[in-house]
Amino acid sequence: MNKKAQAGGIDLMIAMIIFSIGIIVFLIYSVNYSKNLKENYETLAYEGKIVSNIILSEGYPTEWNSENVVRIGILTENKIDQRKLEEFYNLVQTNYTRTKRLLNTRYDYYFLVNRKIIIGSEEIEGFGKPDVDFRNINSKNLVKITRASIYKNKIVTVYVYVWE
């Protein structure tokens, strides 16, 4: 009868050790995981701000086109310039990867204005990574930057989505 009691005690001690190890592993993982999430968010937010600042600038050279562009920017005199907007749109449609290099980002992006944009005779909501619907971006890490600007003499809200 004493041997059964001793075996039960050893089983209990082994179970406690396994349970303790499990709790310790869980705590270490959860602390590190939340730290990584915060770092990813901060990096994406920083990149998003940079991308939106570059897009909402005059660009370089000031009268840039798809052939001579060094830095994309769609503003002239602090208003969205239709010609630059169309150049940006066409550049995204023909060479999205190049626009990422010009915007100095490795992340995907989508540019959106809260009213219809007119490109040629076409009305569009926004543009960015090809074949992406900004409403259904499937990414765990997504940042939305909101800015104000002027388009066709009306105040508009500009959104830049950046994701991994």
Describe the 3D structure.
The protein has about 160 residues and is an alpha+beta fold. The chain has one domain. The protein is about 45% helix and about 25% strand. It contains three helices and six strands. The protein has helices at about 1-55, 80-95, 95-100; strands spanning about 75, 80, 110-120, 120-130, 140-150, 155-164. A four-stranded antiparallel β-sheet has the order 4-3-6-5. A hairpin with a 2-residue loop joins β3 (about 110-120) and β4. α2 packs across α3. It is elongated, with a radius of gyration of 26 Å. It starts with a helix and ends with a strand. The model has no long low-confidence stretch (mean pLDDT about 90).
Key terms:
two-stranded antiparallel ribbon, 45% helix, 3 helices, alpha+beta, 164 residues, four-stranded antiparallel sheet, single chain
**How far apart are the termini?**
63 Å
Largest β sheet strand count, sense and barrel closure: 4 strands, antiparallel
How much is the average pLDDT? 88
| Alpha-beta classification | alpha+beta
Number of contiguous helices = 3
Shape: elongated
Helix and strand string, N-terminal first? HEEHHEEEE
If you compute it from the alpha carbons, what radius of gyration comes out, rounded to the nearest whole angstrom?
26 Å
Topology:
Blueprint: H1 2-55, E1 75-76, E2 79-80, H2 82-94, H3 96-102, E3 108-119, E4 122-128, E5 142-151, E6 154-163
Antiparallel strand pairs: 1-2, 3-4, 3-6, 5-6
Compact summary:
By secondary structure, this protein is of the alpha+beta class. The protein has helices at residues 2-55, 82-94, 96-102; strands spanning 75-76, 79-80, 108-119, 122-128, 142-151, 154-163.
